[in-house]
Every structure is written in structure tokens, then in C-alpha cells.
Amino acid sequence: MRTLLKGGTVLSTTGGSLADVLVEDEKIVAVTAPGVFTTADTVLDASGKYVLPGGIDAHTHMEMPFGGTFSADTFETGTTAAAWGGTTTIIDFAVQAKGTSLVSTLDKWHEKADGNCAVDYGFHMIVSDVNDTTLKEMETCIDGGVSSFKMFMAYPGVFYSTDGEILRAMRKATETGSTIMMHAENGIAIDELVAQALGEGKTDPVQHGYTRPSALEGEATSRAITLARVTGAPLYIVHLSAAEALSAVAEARDGGRNVFAETCPQYLYLSIEDLARPGFEGAKYVASPPLREKKHQADLWRGLRTNDLSVVSTDHCPFCFKDQKELGRGDFSKIPNGMPGVEHRMDLLHQGVVAGEISLGRWVEACSTTPARMFGLYPRKGVIAPGSDADIVVYDPAARQTLSAETHHMAVDYSAYEGFEITGKVETVLSRGKVVVSPSGFSGGTGHGRFLSRDKCQYLN
Ligand SMILES: NC(=O)NCCC(=O)O
Ligand SMILES: [Zn+2]
Ligand SMILES: [Zn+2]
């Protein structure tokens, strides 16, 4: 089965050029000057459109247990929404509960995801219990295609690890060539600030932001970098939101360290003013780290331009406003942490191109090519080139759309970007050669997505 995408502007990390793309079954077999091939079983006219590698969202949480509930998207609904938004690979987090094993956790996440995904997927492993057994099990995870491990300096008593535990896991990462991903917020100090606020009767959602100041993200980021330096482990800072944390990452990178970071669209476009919306509305915007003051946004865009921020992921972790965010009415610390976004990352970052914040090449790099390299998927994913999986997005840069919960496909009852006017729209999406989204709608299937066994990070010095 051959599919020809004709007449589009094919994008890569260096920009775009007019080219045709020939797909045979699941793979790209040729990228040629326009008109070299004229026939195929299916010919898609991409004139006036961008043809780019499918998005890779390296940070999602489908069906994630948190605070007595589960994030609202299943692997089925979440990966379907991802496809609608031009994301053809997700890397989700398997979550080790304290006292359980990494191997059984991985099995559990396979049970949830296998056969239920509309696009390809991989896993990172959240390590919340560091001991001799789990350290050994990290090797089994790597053998099972999971080459990155997330740890938390936040959430004492739940996911939190001490510096000593982090050090031990980092040593293991150095030994095995795997990557430590870090949720870098000083959770011990934050818990004190939370207790103090609640003690003073301050219970509104905006307190979530006030009790997690950016300085405590900066401090934890610096500490994580120091621990990585001592152990030699590759370090990837997840969901970086604050200028102080970015400075620490930039300094480490200038020093030649294997330190990387991602940010998320919510930190580029939303702010603590959203957390401060009247009544309980701010609960929709509770995620950790919290939305920051607007002044941080310019730094984050600059970080994206300079590659101090290498990746944009969503940290998609949706909780419904009506019955889940509600758990924290009267006590902001009980609001489930997380926001929806897997469907909108490509569109939102395209606004950065439209506004002149980033180039077309940088859009592709931060949303697809770099995550592929960072998490051991390149060149199978992240590039339009012969031999790569035919994960392809045809994007209309001139189309207009308005984001809304009325029209999105995520299983959550609100949009964090309600009413956002977007220039550009996904027109057609191929996942391993199969058209899964087209102007006629969704034509994928939830058994289509395959588990991706990942190699180690492809950027290490
Ligand atoms: N970010 C967030 O608030 N929820 C998801 C879990 C995490 O990434 O820390
Ligand atoms: Zn986190
Ligand atoms: Zn997350």
C-alpha cells in the first residue's frame, strides 16, 4: 500500500522545502523533489500545507492515580485526542506506588495501555521507593524498553525521594546509561508553606501558586544538577516553569553537562492570574509546578530559542472540574494536580512561530525531533526521512480555529485554553502509514498504537 503526499512544504529542524513524500505500508520510503512520483494507491494533496514529523509528547499521564482519583483520560481517549492534535507518539509515566516493585508497575501499565492506544506509546518509570530491589529492577525496566526514570523532590510521603535516595538512583543511571527525570520543587519547604497558609484560613486555588514560589523550583533544580554532577548521571528536568530554574539549567549546559529540560505550553501561555480566577475557577489551573507570574514567559521563550529548553511536552494530566477538582474546594492542597493539553501542544507552539518567538525548524525540533533523540526513538520517529516510521502531520498554517471544551476530544469537561484563537490546524495525520485523522474525521483505531521499546538518550557527552 503506497501513499503519496504531494506538493507540501516538508519541515525538519532546519526549516522547510517543497518536496513529496512517498510512504509504503508503515514506512517513509522516499522524500523527493516535487513530481518525481505521480501515482500511488492514495495521493494526498498537501499544497500550501506543512508536512512535518508527527509530534512526540514525552510527558503524559493517562489514567494516573493521584490524590484518591485518576486522571480522566484513558489510554484510549488520551491517545485519540493526541492524534487529533498531530501527536503520534506519547511517552507516559508508569507510577510505582511506595512498597511495590518497578517490574509489577510496568506490567500494570502495559495492561492499561496495550491494545488500547490510537498512536504509538512508550513509558518512563516513576521511582518513588528507592531500595536495593528497585535499583536492581531499573535494569529490568531498561531491558523492557524503559530507559528513563522520573523522581520527585516534591510531594513528601507520596512520591518524594531524599537527596540520598536520588543519589543512589543517579548512580544506577550512570552505570546503565539511563536518564533521571526530575520533578524539581523543594517539597519539604512547600509543605511548610501549605500548612501555614491553611492555618491562616487561606484555602483558595491561588494559594497553590503562592505556596510553591519559583525560588523553590530554582533551588531544587540547582540541587538536582549538583547531584547529577556528583554522580555523572544524565538529568532531564521536567515541566520547567521558572526563570530561576532555567538559569540553573543554562549554567549547567554552558558547562558541558548532560543536563536537559522541557517546558510545557501552560507555562508559556497561562499565568498565576488564571489560578486567581474568581470563585473556584482557578482549580482548573492547578498543576505543579504552578502557573507563574507572566514575567517568566519571556525567559521560557528565550530558553526555547537558545536550546536551554530542548523539549516541549504537555504534562497532560486532566482532572474534570465538576467531580475531581471539586475534591479540593475549601482546601487547595487537595485539588488534584494537573491540567489537560495533549491535544493542543502542536497548535499552541505553532502560535510561537506565528508570533515570531521561534522558527518553524525549532517548532519541529522541540515538539518532535528532540524528544525522539532525547528518549531513544530517533530516527524511527521524529523525522521525515526514508526508513523512518510514516508518522506524518499535514498542517494547514492558514486555517483558523478556536479551542474549546465543546470541540476538543480529551475526556475532560473544561479547556485550559477556552476561547484561544489559533492560527493553523492539523488537517491529516498518518500514524505508521495509516491515515488516522483527515478532514472527514477520525479513522484510527485504539488497537493501532504499538509499544515503543526505547534506547538511551542520544545526546550524551
Ligand atoms: N504536574 C502535575 O501537576 N501533575 C502531574 C504529575 C507531575 O508531573 O508532577
Ligand atoms: Zn512532575
Ligand atoms: Zn507530569
From TrEMBL:
Gene3D superfamilies reported for this sequence: Metal-dependent hydrolases (3.20.20.140), Urease, subunit C, domain 1 (2.30.40.10)
PANTHER family: COLLAPSIN RESPONSE MEDIATOR PROTEIN (PTHR11647:SF1), HYDRANTOINASE/DIHYDROPYRIMIDINASE FAMILY MEMBER (PTHR11647)
Family named by the database record: Belongs to the metallo-dependent hydrolases superfamily. Hydantoinase/dihydropyrimidinase family.
Enzyme class name: hydrolase
Biological source species: Amycolatopsis acididurans
SUPFAM superfamilies given in the database record: Composite domain of metallo-dependent hydrolases, Metallo-dependent hydrolases
GO molecular function: dihydropyrimidinase activity
Cofactor(s) the protein requires to work: Zn(2+)
Domain Amidohydrolase-related: 50-436
EC numbers, comma separated: 3.5.2.2
Residue stretches spanning the membrane: none
Pfam families: Amidohydro_1
Protein name: Dihydropyrimidinase
